[in-house]
Amino acid sequence: MSDPSSGAAAAMRRTLASWLSAPEADSRRASLPTVMLFLAPALIVYAALTAYPVLRTFYNSFFNVADLASSEFVGWTHYAEVFKDKTFWAAVRNTAIWSVIGPVLDVVVGLLLALCLYAGVPFSRFLRVAWFTPVLLSYVVVGIMWVWIYNYDWGVVNGLLRAMGLGSWAQAWLGDPRFALGSLIVTHAWKWAGFNMVVCLAALHSLPSEVLEAAELDNCGWWHKLTDIIVPMLWPTLLNLYILAFIGKMKVFDLVWIMTEGGPVWSTETVSTYVYKRAFNWNTFDLGYPSAIAVVWFFVVVGFVVFFNVLFRRRERMEY
Amino acid sequence: MTFFSRPAAWPGLGPGRRSAAAIALAGTVLALIGMPAVAQQQTLAMWSHWPDEASKRSFIEERVKQFEAATPQCKVNLQFVQKADLYTSVKTSVRTGQAPDIFWLEPDEIAFAKSGYLEPLDKYIDLANLEDWAKRAWTWNGKVYAMPQEAYSVELYYNRDLMKKIGVTPPAGMQMTQAQFADMIKRSVAAGITPTATGVGDRPYPGAYFLQEILLRKLGTEDYEKLLTGRLPFQDPRVIEAMTWVKQLVDAGMFPRSMATMKLGESHYYFHTNPGALMFPIASWYTGRAFVAPEKGGQPKDFALGLMKYPAMDGSKCPECKTLAVGGSYVMYARSKNKECAGKMLSSLATVENGNKWMESVLLQTGVRTDPSRITSIYAPYFKELQERGAGARYFIGTPLHYMSGKCGDTFAQVLNRAFPGGLMSVNDAAVQMDAACKASS
To answer: ipTM of the assembly?
Structure first.
């Protein structure tokens, strides 16, 4: 029989004791049980509502899941199908267009609005509130409102065109594949311009005033002041806004679903709407295939997050 | 010696106390025996569509009240939910055993039965009270899976006043020829009146109603069924001919430009109130929304509603053909813990008496057998006209989405329901896309 005070068992006991006892070096450090006590609720919620669903989606993607109790293992079949699925690629193309172009529009509009306020345009207090208000509206409200705005017969857009004698330009903006995606991008930019405006405005106010004053003393024109001083100094902020918007648009769903449901002829289909359709709208109960699409797109989004982190060599961890 | 008098069982108790204890215990046992009557009371969860269709909603609420009064051991927790939300919820909840005991479905969701989520109703309801064609719409592997409350035919409503305004008089048989119909469309457009009100913003089928009825008449029931099941290509010359004619009408301005985003409810308003359209190709459940007070979105009291037959193209194989379909039906969840009550509830709906009441109050067909001679209503003239339009008809049971599913159904919704009538796609493109999606899935 070995000596209980020596060997691996004793080492484990000492380690356990050190974990469970109060720390000696730094009295501010909490013990493991205390840490766990505080972390447990958050960990449980995270595990139940985030980690488990994600892992389960990975798992489901290898099955035909008509019922959770009886699934049929199909291996990589769904993944092979995804890459041959024309509608999936149409959705990828639309999502990519939206993710690349949409953030540019968001950031540029947000910056312009912020510059207006920064320059002290009349009624700037009112405008600040008015421009920010769309951010507070839900996608449902925004979607329904803009469906009316784009309506061919009585919508504001066509009404204005007709009033200006440009009636021939009137379109069924959401009913024509040539314009539908662009119309959605504009609506999305309208909703989020206020958020970008507030961030840009905060960044503008934090710019060192001596640099701007020096530029004014050197008779620097407003265009050069904007392009050579303000934008370069705001660049990290604008970049962060772009990346945030890019990631958000890779997952866009609500607005599309309310306004077009992916139509006409898949011209506004996004990966998220396609996953939803395959899971809940088609006359099939298989959750496996939509899970496979979701997994593929999960890795694409994660890949872009890693790419941006590496590309811009950010030290701080980005939060999305 | 009885059990209750055994001294060993009652140590320390005198005879009087023993009697009291025995009485108390007996009372408890009796109470426990009596309890099952209370415990057996079941509360059914029942989800129905039609939250904003007053006549249908009232009908179901009234039947539930009567059922609860006649069957005190069964209570019904009835909820009305919009169709899209209802489908999303039940598709999620059936997988986890959380679905309501009874819920609303249409036959295009027969996949619920195929996946084993529905309880066959053969032993719960009197199948003799259902129409044969309605039973067929819900039959899978020889079992009937739903109580077909609603049935409808695909009709062509029109505004009599606007028809007069453009100088058109419908023919005696109420079915126009190809040339007459095309001429009427041109006259309507020339008069600044939208020929047909149609909105596909929230439904995957209304845009295809006109084309599907033309195809049915052109092909006849057998070939039309082959077309819907992928056994006849959309590139068949007869189909191309029909689509080409419809495309000509589309290009002439048959459908409203706002069709893509207009919702079904809005299309009703577009037809009868603002801006007003000449025709409305829609199922006979039109009445569910139209025959309510105008302030609730119904048609104006003096609205001159008329019904005509769909036109038949020259050389049509079956000009008298017409679509008849089962609509909203009630099904029982296979994992329901209250099957007895759920069965009684569905059985109470499936009676000839209730079939008559449905037709009388909702003014709509039903899959339950009826006795038309007993039906009376303030809308009797409308109902008479509806019957006249169906007289001599050869019915085809089911709409395209009852036959198409998956990619084929999605392509139908995108192409034939939206893009083709919207003038966004050529005949050839539409046919090729339909064949690519539907022949592959057949």
So the answer is: 0.75
